[in-house]
Amino acid sequence: MTTDTIAKEVAVSFEVGGKVCKLGGIAKGSGMIHPNLATMLVFLTTDCAISAEMLQAALSGDIQNTFNMVSIDGDTSTNDMVALMANGMAGNREITEKNDDFKVFAQALNTVTVQLCRMIAGDGEGATKLLECTVSGADSMQVAKTVAKSVICSSLLKAAMFGADANWGRVLCAIGYSGADVDVTKVDVAFRSAKGSISVCKNGAGIPFSEENAKEILLEKEIEILISVGSGTYSASAWGCDLTYDYVKINGDYRT
């Protein structure tokens, strides 16, 4: 581990054709994490019997909504890798097509990858908080994903979350420059954590709320940024972390 502070590992069990199978993963990733190319290594293994073609189909479909929706700092590297390996030792009938067994496998895979995404994001360089941005009500999956990624990548929003500042304007700013086709007059924003939830924006405008309650909610280690952009049926989530003094110190002293 380089600047990772915790081991990142997840495992689940699931049943395929009456046979209990296992799937687990480990990950390395702390800084220079951004969709498509990152200083990130993820190794996933399973004892499920599944063909190489179906393994590739499951992984390729999954990463679009998991690892490609994580951003620590917006910077990329050349060490990006996610590998999924199967040895078939569970003894189930081999999965060779996209049938019900494939769906069970894909769900197990997603359970593991989402948890690894959360661990990677929460352990970003210098991070003190895990941020999860969930966008709902979008007219398309592309709009939902574009908005979620734009918000989670915003340095201004990340800094506001570090300061426990319920600055909903930072959220709308990121939505605005995302390029997504969104009607700002339909945008609602709320923040949620273990301390509760608070609405801060309705129909694209600020609403009265308790700054004290908002501060208490945003001082937690895990923060949800909840955005509704209309009455569509699509939703997406992205994961990131706050931007802290320690992130600057780590990278300011990187070679010295």
Can you walk through the features of this model?
The chain is α+β, with helices and mostly antiparallel strands and 256 residues long. Helix 1 crosses helix 2 (100-122) and helix 3 packs across helix 5 (168-177). It is 32% helix and 28% strand.
Topology:
Elements: E1 8-16, E2 19-29, E3 40-46, H1 52-63, E4 81-86, H2 100-122, E5 130-138, H3 141-153, H4 155-162, H5 168-177, E6 188-193, E7 196-202, E8 205-206, H6 211-218, E9 222-228, E10 234-241, H7 245-252
Parallel strand pairs: 3-4, 5-9
Antiparallel strand pairs: 1-2, 2-3, 5-10, 6-7, 6-9, 7-8
Helix pairs in contact: 1-2, 3-5
- Quickly count the helices: 7
Number of strands: 10
Mean pLDDT, as a whole number? 94
Give the helix/strand class.
Answer: alpha+beta
CATH superfamily of the largest domain: ArgJ beta chain, C-terminal domain
Unreliable residue stretches:
none
Q: Give the biggest beta sheet.
A: 6 strands, mixed
CATH fold call of the largest domain: Ubiquitin-like (UB roll)
CATH architecture of the largest domain: Roll
- The proportion of strand residues reads 25-35%
The tally of domains stands at 2
Q: What is the topology, as strand order, of the major beta sheet?
A: 8-7-6-9-5-10
Series of H and E elements: EEEHEHEHHHEEEHEEH
> Helical percent range?
25-40%
From the N-terminal CA to the C-terminal CA, the straight-line distance is: 19 Å
Radius of gyration, whole Å: 19 Å
State the CATH class of the largest domain.
Answer: Alpha Beta
User: Quick one: overall form?
Assistant: globular
